[in-house]
Amino acid sequence: MNGNQEPITIEEIRAAAGRIRHVIVRTPLVRLSSDPEDPDIYLKLENLQPINAFKLRGAANAVALLSEQERLQGVWTISAGNAGQGVAYAARAAGIPCTVVVIQPASYTKVARMKRLGATLIHAPFDQCWRAMEERRFPGVQGVFIHPFDDRDFIAGNGTVALEILEDLPTVRAVVCAVGGGGLIAGIASALHAVAPGIAVWGAEPETASPLAASLEAGSPQSFSAWQASFVDGAGGKSVFPSMWARVHQLVSGSVVVSLAEVQNAMKLLAENVRVIAEGAGALPVAAALSGKIGEGPVVAVVSGGNIDLATFCELIGPHAG
User: CATH 3.40.50.1100 region(s) of the chain?
Assistant: First the structure.
């Protein structure tokens, strides 16, 4: 797929918006609290996509741009679940086979949904999957590789989130989103840099996996040696790919590192205030916005997904959580 490292243009993002409009949902923007005294935080509810995650935007755009010869080969990707669902959903709609190399451990909910979408699943440990994303190959898997974040067509699709935010809240001062591989923040930052450069773009990472914050501090792409698996499985990588660093480091204001307890509190707040079920990565930007480190609002937190096992969700927000 398209690994061209030239900056993602607003024309590409607008073209993606037209291309995927019949596949995705134009998700709503709602305020976290109705109390005017509370922080001015809005939620972009990407958990309401057909796969309950923003990844459908990038996947739908990438699959739509496949050539006829590429479609005959089928597609594959690597994912903890959301990108896999996105590629599988788009591939099924296009009538082409899809294989997902699933990063372990994976949520039962995400695995079950990928199966229902017709994907062939291959399970592998995190380290092997991360290397495969760097090398763009996995033993025994054939077809066209759709990178889950380092792909300009995927990033352009992700950038359509920003266009909708601007239409719904022209006064927005900052947008914050979870950072895993960096595809979402790259798309949003590319769009806003082109049409509204005064709006700050922030990343949010868990304390257990925050390579972008470390990279921004060092001024170069870094690995995160203290990486730990957590319930925030949709964000937080082991390193920042140099290619993704090149795309984002000059476009973002920073990355807020959030504790796991703060993520749990944000998940609970979303459920209580707006009846939203968010996975860890989906609540991560809300926790970052609530930290006060992003500044005055209006701040939009992108609730990137809601694919979490309900038993796990209840454990995390219940009275004995933490």
Answer: 10-53+153-317, 56-150
Class of CATH domain 10-53+153-317 = alpha beta
How high is the mean pLDDT in each 10-residue block of the chain (322 residues)?
76 98 96 88 97 96 96 94 93 95 87 94 92 93 94 96 98 97 96 97 96 96 91 88 94 96 96 96 97 93 94 87 60
How are beta strands 299-303 and 200-206 bridged, if at all?
unpaired
As a whole number of angstroms, the distance between CA 307 and CA 84 comes to 12
C-alpha 184/C-alpha 161 separation (Å) is: 9
pLDDT at 108: 85
The CATH number corresponding to 56-150 among 3.60.60.10, 3.40.50.1100, 3.40.50.10540, 3.30.1450.10 equals 3.40.50.1100
Tell me the CA distances in angstroms from 173 to 20, 38, 40, 136, one per residue in order.
27, 16, 10, 37
Spatial distance between the Cα atoms of 92 and 310, rounded to a whole number of angstroms: 26
Q: What is the DSSP string of 46-79?
A: GGGSTTSBTHHHHHHHHHHT--HHHHHH-EEEEE
